[in-house]
Amino acid sequence: MQNKNLIYLLPFTLIFLFVYPVICAESPLKPARLTCDNLVNPLGIDSGTPRLGWQFISTEKSQVQSAYEIVISDKAENINRAEGNVWKSGKVQSAQSVNVSKSVALKLFTKYYWRVRVYDGGDEASEWSEIASFETAMLNDDDWTAKWIGDGKKNPDNDEDYFKDDRMPLFRKEFPATKAIASARLYISGVGYYEAYLNGKKISDLVLDPGWTTYKKQVLYAVHDITSLLQKGQNVAGVMLGNGWWNPLPIKLFGRWDLRNYQQTERPCLKAEIRITYSDQSVDVIPTDGSWESAQGPIVRNNVYLGEHYDARLEQDGWNTLKPDKKNWTRAAEVPGPAGRLSVQMQPPIKITNIVKPVRIAQISS
After folding, report:
1. What is each CA distance from 224 to 48, 221, 257, 273, 349, in whole angstroms?
2. Is the preceding omega at residue 210 within 30 degrees of 0, hence cis?
C-alpha cells in the first residue's frame, strides 16, 4: 500500500521540483540609480510632469527590459510597501527607461517618494528598486512670495564710468525659528552672481550661480537644504552680489557688439525665499522684500573679463552674523528685476574641485 502511494505522489513531486523554481524565479535585472529630471533625488522641480529614469544591475548577460511598473507616493510608509497614492502606473509594456513621464497632480513644496520594478525578456519581475525621491519647488511665478531687491543705486549714464569703483551690495535679514525644525529650504536667485550665507556660514560650495540665460526670457534659481545651518531662536541670512552677465561692462565683443544692447541688464539684484517646516508641520516663510537691510561690500570692481578687486579695508564686520556693525546699513530697495520666468536650475553646478597653494611667496628686488 505504501509503494502504491509513492507511485501516486511521484508525478506531483516531479511537477513541484520542475515548476516551483520557475514560479519563484526572480528576474536577473534590477533597476538602479534612479533619477528625476536627470538628477538623483532633486530638491526642487518646477514641472507637473517629472521625467523619471533608471539604469540596471544584472546578474546575467544579454538581458532586456520588456516592461516596467512605477509607484509614487507622498508618504514614506506607503512607498515602503510599494504602494502609490499619487501614481501607480501598473505594468507598462515598454523598454523605455529614460524620460518616463506622466502628468500628475503635484503639490507645492512637497517631497515625493518613488520606486520602480522592471520585467526582463522572459516577463519575470525584478525586485522593487531602492526608494528615490524628488521635491517640488514653485510650480508657477505666482507661487513666489519674495520680491526682487537691490541697493537702490542707478547705473552710470556714461560708458567710461562703468570702469570706476562700484562697491557691490551686501544684504542681510534676521529672523526667528520659533519651534523644533523638521526641514528648511532656501530658494534663491541673485543676478549676476551671488554668494549666500546663513549664520555666518556659506550655504554651499557652488560658485558662479545662477547659470547665464537670456534674462528677459528665463532666470534660474537654486534650491538648497539649509536644515543643518538653522538654529532654534534667532538666525541671520546674508547674501553678497556681483555683476556677472546681468550687469556687464560696455565692452564691444569682436569690436562690434556691446552685450548691453542685446541683453536685458541692470544693477545686481536678489530674489530669495527661506521656507522652514517645523515638526508640527507648520511653516514659516522669510522672503526678500523691503524689510531686508543693505550695505556696500568690500568688492569694489568685478567683471567676468577683468576679474575682481577686493578691498579688505572696506569689510563690514560681522555682516552675516547676529553681531554686525550696523552703522552703515540701510533698507533694501524693491526693484523690477529680470523680466524672464524663474526656473529651477537643473544643470550640473560649478564647484571648486582643487585648490593649488603656492610653494613660496617672495618679493624679487629690482
Report:
1. 20, 10, 36, 11, 12
2. yes
Phi, psi angles (nearest 5°) of residue 161: -75, -15
C-beta separation of 222 from 188 below 8 A: yes
Find cell 536644515 and name the residue: 227
Q: In the chain, which ranges are continuous DSSP H helix? A: 2-23, 76-80
All three cell numbers of 217, joined, read: 526670457
Round to the nearest angstrom and report the end-to-end CA distance of the chain. Answer: 115
Are 156 and 81 in contact by the 8 Å Cβ rule? The answer is no
Within a 13 Å sphere around the CA of 19, how many CA atoms are in the beta-carbon half? 6
The reported pTM is 0.87
Task: Return phi, psi of residue 155, to 5°.
Answer: -70, 155
E-only strand ranges, 106-180? 111-119, 132-135, 149-150, 169-177
Cell 531662536 belongs to residue: 233
DSSP three-state, residue 300: strand
pLDDT number for residue 200: 95
Distance CA 207, CA 159 (A): 28
Residue 188: C-alpha distances to residues 118, 288, 294, 314, 345 (Å): 38, 10, 17, 26, 10
Where does residue 198 fall: left (phi above 0), alpha (psi -120 to 50 degrees), or beta otherwise?
beta
3-state secondary structure at position 207:
strand
What pLDDT sits at residue 24? 44
Closest CA to 196 of 171, 177, 221, 232: 171
Q: Which tens digits make up the pLDDT trace of 282-326? A: 999 999 999 999 999 999 999 998 999 999 999 999 999 999 888
203-212 pLDDT per residue, tens: 999 999 999 9
- Grid cell, residue 311, equals 578691498
Q: What is the pLDDT of residues 153-194, one digit of tens each?
A: 999 999 999 999 999 999 999 999 989 999 999 999 999 999
Instruction: Report the C-alpha gap between 3 and 15 in whole angstroms.
Output: 19
